[in-house]
Amino acid sequence: MIPQQLHWWQSGTIYQIYPRSFKDSNGDGIGDLQGIITQLDYLTWLGVDAIWISPFYPSPMADFGYDVADYCNVDPIFGDLETFERLLEQAHRRDLKVIIDFVPNHSSDSHPWFVEARSSQTSSKRQWYIWHDPAPDGGPPNNWESYFGGSSWTFEQQTGQYYLRQFGARQPELNWRNPELRAVMYDVMRFWLDRGVDGLRVDVLWMLIKDDQFRDNPINTDWKEGDLPWAHQIRLFSEDRPEMHEVIREMRAIVDSYGERVLIGEIYLPLPQLMRYYGDTINGAQLPFNFQLILLSAWNAEMIRQLVDTYEAILPAGAWPNWVLGNHDKPRIASRIGRLAARVAAMLLLTLRGTPTWYYGDEISMQDVTIPPHLAHDPQGKRQPGYGRDPVRTPMHWDSGPNAGFCPANVDPWLPIAADYQQNNVAVEREDARSMLTLTRALLTFRRIKPALNRGSYHAVESRSENCFVYLREHGKQRLLITLNFSVEAQVVRLPEFGQGRILISTCLDREEQMNLASLSLRSHEGCIIEITESE
Ligand code: GLC
After folding, report:
1. 266 is catalytic
2. pTM
């Protein structure tokens, strides 16, 4: 049963902003909150409903803000609390919701809590972090491996123990089994919810609780050279522990006590495990991020259809779906599959059932930028060459001027700007009736005005072409067919059972026509939204 009255986080589209790279307002080559404020009109013009801003808290930037030194403030690079409040107010004035990043798994080693905790084994904050005696041979307590390479444990000479950190050594992990720590972190959530933020995206939500006996993780015997370095072991004991769900219920209760707010979880897990994060009675995360479109091993009609059908089938009753195509950690969609195919991917994302999350710059077809080693920043890439995330975090292209309008001409942006920015930028693409930007905006508009898209049911349709994925979105009398050609070759899909239809939009942005659905030709990498006008 599809609810008629949807929450904003169900019917809307979320736009992710990586604040360092969106817009620099003070000429230091790094984006900031004031920069975001200046672009709010762009976002409302584009047609998104909410922004999620990656961390802007005080931080030594060892992991670009995912190493927080003060959970209740703003780093001077980005502005101050007052600027944040202005951003919130300005966004709300435009009916845009604001979701912030909450990073509860680890703090920075510069956080005063950790400075205190590491000072002695009897420190009052010692148990807020995870400490362990060395193994009998003096080595790390167990075999857990860091996502950034090497052991997950760092030895502290001064107190003779190791602390846990599954990312960088400067990101010590907080102890969510400690009630005091939990209470303090819940106060952090309230601090921001009290200020009026509309939701929290919780960083690595599935990792917060670790095995209480710190057992070794099993080795992944299928792993071979060239596979993801962090897939080398099966993280059975270091993440996704059963006790996690109690924490999520508590977080959700806090969020719910503020009314219409949303709890989003960053969770990289196979679908059956992911589903548990909705909670037994849908009292967990409202949107456990669904990264399956990012993780697919091949991009073709059959795999995508299977994925969507499996996800739809496995969703618990009352759970709302969501889809993500890209984020600040993964290669951009236009690089993974190419710019033409990315137009079809955009139509897919914005016509599937459930909340879409859009990564900044994908609307102007930004691609990954090769970063020369001497300009690299990302700790993940520095330790594991080839796995750096800088290429997907480069500055947004606003116009064809110097530095793409991201920062003044006389400063170096913190990461290099793509060489092709003069063709692919907001100013140029706004004027081009067939650009990716025009397509994205049109799709976002259809998603808003067509109930079949933002709340209708989903059914896969037999397309009689193995390279095409066709599905029906239906609400009341409104019936829309989405026909997507995932191949380079032209295809014909045969849908005689649907009679006549009218193409509302093609990814090529060049046809709107009435047609007989008995035979529909789709060009290379073309997708269409077709309104069924008459059934036989
Ligand atoms: C999440 C973030 C990523 C960060 C990591 C550690 O996966 O998305 O950018 O490096 O957590 O905080």
Report:
1. yes
2. 0.97
